[in-house]
Amino acid sequence: MKRELAIEFSRVTEAAALAGYKWLGRGDKNTADGAAVNAMRIMLNLVNIDGTIVIGEGEIDEAPMLYIGEKVGTGKGDAVDIAVDPIEGTRMTAMGVPTPRR
After folding, report:
1. CA distances (Å), origin 60, targets 3, 49, 66, 86
2. Which of 73, 74, 83, 92 is most buried when burial is the number of CB atoms within 10 A of its CB?
């Protein structure tokens, strides 16, 4: 992966994490997930890629965004297949439960 894309994808991940964090412990997993999905989608659409979601959020949570086949990015740059999961553990986030150590 090009260094520039690695940095851009870290920004995408950071935006999703910060958006979801605002809902930590508030008991509303759908709102937490929705905030993270929205932030991730906004940031993905700023990246200079011709991206396609190949593993998405929509099928799991019936979300209207980040579904399989959705185009993301500016449409310029490298063609990229993307797998997304804006929040790993939406219920744990909503309940404020720490992720178990493996």
Report:
1. 31, 25, 11, 12
2. 73
